[in-house]
Amino acid sequence: MRLVVFDVDGTLVDSQADIIASMGAAFAEVGQAAPTRQDILGIVGLSLPVAMQTLAPGADHTRMVAVYKDSYASLRVTKGVASSPLYPGARAALDRLNARNDILLGVATGKSKRGLDGLIDAHGLTDMFVTTQVADFHPSKPHPSMLHTAMDEAGVTTADAVMIGDTSFDADMAQAAGMPFVGVAWGYHPVSRLTGARAVLNDFDELDDALGALWGLT
């Protein structure tokens, strides 16, 4: 069996509008101007406390995290799947891989469990993933804890696992875990930051060939 672990924000779904809006609400809560869009997208993938510390050193991060989570949850309820739409081809790629008897799917994300569960339910992805690793239970990316646990739960080793992501945090996490990394070009970090990637996908149609080249799959 092989395990394909996906990042979520910027890889499977485009959640930037709600991330930026919720970050704006968090900064307003502590009386600070929100960072630029570029700066906010630059920290996507980190756990929220680490992201807040990076963007607002010295602020009340506990309050900011709470407001961010409440804002994001409210937007998700109000907007439904439009809150975090799947990127073109994402659902088809997941369905193709899930239909194989030699592939297992997983998630490693900076989202909270509440956030990931809501997204999975909204998109009808329940039972798609055999392992779902979230920020609630691990150190922030790029620490390899999420990937170590994902491999343990799936019963595979690094030779039979791969991380798919859009940020340098995903690339560095995979490297720290000793796992191959495949980047995506449509996410929140420029391709130049995806160091060590075995391949960089321009769309999801290229995923099957990238996995085939990695493992000799047909």
Automatic annotation (TrEMBL):
Instruction: Tell whether Hydrolase is among the UniProt keywords.
Output: yes
Mind telling me what this protein is named? HAD family hydrolase
One biological-process term from Gene Ontology? DNA repair
**SUPFAM superfamilies assigned:** HAD-like
Molecular function as annotated in GO: phosphoglycolate phosphatase activity
Q: What keywords tag this UniProt record?
A: Hydrolase
Please tell me the species this chain comes from. Tateyamaria omphalii
One Pfam family name is HAD_2
Q: GO cellular-component terms in the record?
A: cytosol
Q: Which InterPro entries match?
A: HAD-like_hydrolase_sf (IPR050155), HAD-like_sf (IPR036412), HAD-SF_hydro_IA (IPR006439), HAD_2 (IPR041492), HAD_sf (IPR023214), PGP-like_dom2 (IPR023198)
